[in-house]
Design a protein that fits this description.
single chain, alpha/beta, Rossmann fold, 6-stranded mixed beta sheet, 4-stranded antiparallel beta sheet, 11 helices, 21% strand, binds adenosine-5'-diphosphate, binds magnesium ion
Amino acid sequence: MIEIRNLQFRYGEDQPLALDGIDLDIPPGQWLALIGPNGSGKSTLARCLNGLLLPTGGSVRVDGLDTAAEDELMAVRERVSFVFQNPDNQIIATSVEDDVAFGPENLGLPREEISRRVEAALHVTGLLALREKAPHLLSGGEKQRVAIAGALAMASHYLVLDEPTSMLDPLMREQVLASLRLLHSSHGLGVIYVTNIIEEALLAERVIVLEEGRIVREGTAEEIFRDPQWLTAHGLDAPQACRIAAMLADDGYETLRGALTPEELTERICELS
Ligand SMILES: Nc1ncnc2c1ncn2[C@@H]1O[C@H](COP(=O)(O)OP(=O)(O)O)[C@@H](O)[C@H]1O
Ligand SMILES: [Mg+2]
């Protein structure tokens, strides 16, 4: 469980609060989407989860470990891995497999255990054929999958991703999401997914909306995105299917309201006749 209590953060003494009293529990194995307009504090909150940033006030605990306790920070980082927006900012080693092995090597695990973990991580993320390649020769989507494989090899409990697909084309984006879905469903990995792409937020079991450093709404994707007017009023886009559904509902086709995906909308249209 990640327990966030009255978390405050400011970037400097003369700066305003970037996070202003966040209270949030993230159970293990949950897929959580963090959305909100630019500057609302998503990246700041994400970075507080594994101690990349330390609270100015309040606390963040990961499985009971305090991110602000110096002697607990390493254990926090083992449990919570981070995937950055720019895939070039996280490659360390000169080959894919060395990069994935970096985390477990730092933990001082036995050689066979490291090999076993690296093998499994490369397999799940579809990177076996690229294991000897130099990471800088990979595509952006492959680099993000290397980062995800690294988290798996660490046996992390939670993976925090800060707009991980925003620099990727749709095909690469789909590959990254497929790796994540697999890890979430088969390994019980908790996913904290920061995104401005509403269609990606729909994958989450739970959605948190940030505004000016505060949580202004939380619920299931359905609860949040069913309400395009609220989203628009808060500077957010509703999913395209949902906007079309709302327009048609306003025109009298009330049963379409709340359809979230193109598939769901099509299904409901078929039921009209
Ligand atoms: N390195 C920084 N130094 C000073 N202020 C920052 C820094 N990074 C972010 N901020 C400020 O903190 C607030 C939250 O930013 P951020 O967490 O990056 O929001 P988001 O990820 O939702 O766009 C914004 O007002 C932003 O200007
Ligand atoms: Mg950000």
